[in-house]
From TrEMBL:
<dbReference type="InterPro" id="IPR050955">
    <property type="entry name" value="Plant_Biomass_Hydrol_Est"/>
</dbReference>
<dbReference type="InterPro" id="IPR001375">
    <property type="entry name" value="Peptidase_S9_cat"/>
</dbReference>
<feature type="domain" description="Peptidase S9 prolyl oligopeptidase catalytic">
    <location>
        <begin position="130"/>
        <end position="181"/>
    </location>
</feature>
<protein>
    <submittedName>
        <fullName>Prolyl oligopeptidase family serine peptidase</fullName>
    </submittedName>
</protein>
<dbReference type="InterPro" id="IPR029058">
    <property type="entry name" value="AB_hydrolase_fold"/>
</dbReference>
<keyword id="KW-0732">Signal</keyword>
<dbReference type="Pfam" id="PF00326">
    <property type="entry name" value="Peptidase_S9"/>
</dbReference>
Length: 258
C-alpha cells in the first residue's frame, strides 16, 4: 500500500511540474532534408494583428530524441510562468535535436588523455541546426513577429549551438544567452558588435570547460563587443539552474532590440 501511495504521489508531483508543457503546442517543420520536431508557445491572447518578440531555445544533449517533449525539461517553465507571460509576452520556440546528432559542428579530441572540444564553423552547419535556421526564417517572415526583438538561449550542447547560430546568423538576434556551452573563440567578429551576449557557466563544470566561455568573452571584447559573463563559483555543469533563477535575466534579455 505504501508503495502504491508513493507512486501516486510521485506521479502527481511530476504531472504538476509538467502542467505548463501543454502551453507549448506540438509542431513538425517539414524540410527536404527531414523533419524538425518543435514546440511553440504563443503569448496569452495572441493576435496576428500584433507583433511579439521571439525566443529560440536550444536544449542540451540529454534532451535529444523524437518524442517532441524532452526538450522542455529545462527552461520551458521559466517562460511559461504566469508572471513572466504577463511581463514578457513572447513567442517561444523549443526545437528538438534527433539522437546521435548535434546543434553544433563540435568534436572531442584527446590531448595527453585530456578531452577537449573543437568547433569547426567553416563547413556546412549540422542538419538539425540548418533546419532550425530554416524554421526561424519561416517564423520571422510572419507579420506578427517583431524582428528587432529576436533572442536565442541554450544550455550545454544548446549553448554550443547558440554560439554557432550567432556566427551563422548574426543579423537575426538582438540578444543571446549561452549557458555552460562552448564555441570557436576566433570566429566572433561577425556578431561581437551586433548581438548583446550574456554568458553563464559554472566554475566547477567538469563536463564543459568554463575556460572556453572565458575565451569567447575575451574574443568578443577583442572584436569590439561588450559581453556580460557570470561565473557561478559553486556550480558544476548544471549552471542553468542558477542562471534561470537570476532575477535580472529576462528583464535584460527582453530589453534588447536591434
Amino acid at each position: 500500500m505504501r508503495t502504491i501511495i508513493l507512486l501516486l504521489l510521485t506521479t502527481t508531483i511530476l504531472s504538476a511540474q509538467n502542467d505548463h508543457y501543454d502551453l507549448y503546442q506540438k509542431k513538425v517543420f517539414e524540410t527536404q532534408n527531414g523533419n524538425l520536431l518543435y514546440r511553440i508557445m504563443y503569448p496569452k491572447n495572441f493576435s496576428e494583428d500584433k507583433q511579439y518578440p521571439v525566443v529560440l531555445f536550444l536544449h542540451g544533449s540529454g534532451e535529444r530524441g523524437s518524442d517532441n517533449t524532452k526538450q522542455l525539461i529545462h527552461g520551458s517553465s521559466l517562460f511559461a510562468s504566469e508572471d513572466n507571460r504577463e511581463k514578457f509576452p513572447a513567442i517561444v520556440v523549443f526545437p528538438q535535436c534527433p539522437m546521435d546528432t548535434y546543434w553544433s559542428n563540435m568534436r572531442i579530441v584527446e590531448n595527453d588523455n585530456i578531452p577537449s572540444r573543437q568547433y569547426d564553423y567553416t563547413s556546412s552547419p549540422p542538419l538539425p541546426l540548418q533546419n532550425v535556421m530554416d524554421l526561424m526564417d519561416e517564423l520571422l517572415s510572419k507579420e506578427y513577429t517583431d524582428n528587432n526583438r529576436v533572442y536565442i538561449a541554450g544550455l550545454s550542447m544548446g549553448g554550443m549551438g547558440t554560439f554557432e547560430m550567432l556566427y551563422r546568423r548574426p543579423d537575426i538576434f538582438a540578444a543571446a544567452v549561452p549557458i555552460c556551452g562552448g564555441g570557436n573563440a576566433d570566429m566572433v567578429d561577425g556578431y561581437a558588435k551586433k548581438v548583446s551576449v550574456w554568458i553563464f557557466h559554472g566554475a566547477k563544470d567538469n563536463i564543459v570547460d568554463p575556460k572556453n566561455s572565458l575565451d569567447i568573452a575575451k574574443g568578443i571584447l577583442g572584436a569590439g563587443g561588450y559581453p556580460m559573463l557570470t561565473l557561478f563559483e559553486d556550480a558544476n555543469h548544471n549552471s542553468w539552474d542558477p542562471a534561470f533563477a537570476h532575477p535580472g535575466l529576462l528583464e535584460w534579455m527582453f530589453s534588447k532590440s536591434k
